[in-house]
């Protein structure tokens, strides 16, 4: 909308309530925020015969990743950073590419990045499948107690190690469902919130691993 014979920069500010911000978050689902701005301008003190009003419609898109950053900075969503060690190589294998049967913190960290990317791309099932791969490597890096051993104990009598092991086995079982298509898991559906919960739990368990980097 040209109001001068030369370029100008003006900031258009629209005030939104908390309820409106949260409703935009609900309406966008896993996609971008798509806005339509209806603008109407009136120019004052025009010469006779000039039309004083002008209407314009502008489409504006906010990418999902940028929207989450804005919501986080605005304090409407809670952002939690989990710092996971991410070596360039593994001390056990040096510069060699580890096998699938080798404990590899570098591989686990890479799978975690892929899980986060899948979530940002709006694919919660893929995010959960990558989390399962992280957990498979975590099993090699920090072996939990066997599931059958843990199940023989009552929750009240479990040691700290047994409780962490129970958490690992339950999380692995949940994440594995995204990779299966049998009569039990056929009706499973995965929301963004499901993927976020599994991703956060997986990252938290991986961050507990202590290895020589």
Protein architecture, described:
- The structure is a single chain.
- The chain is mainly alpha-helical.
- The chain has a two-stranded antiparallel sheet.
- The model has no long low-confidence stretch (mean pLDDT 83).
- Helices cover 44% and strands 9% of the residues.
- The chain is built from 7 helices and 2 strands; from the N terminus they run αββαααααα.
Keywords:
two-stranded antiparallel ribbon, 2 strands, 213 residues, 7 helices, elongated, mainly alpha
What structural class results from the helix and strand content?
mainly alpha
Report how far apart the termini are: 57 Å
Low-confidence stretches: none
The radius of gyration is 26 Å
The topology string of helices and strands comes to HEEHHHHHH
Number of strands: 2
Provide a concise account of the structure shown:
With 213 residues, the protein is mainly α.
Outline the secondary-structure elements.
Blueprint: H1 18-28, E1 33-42, E2 53-62, H2 64-74, H3 105-120, H4 124-141, H5 147-151, H6 160-176, H7 192-207
Antiparallel strand pairs: 1-2
Helix pairs in contact: 3-4, 3-7, 4-6, 4-7, 6-7
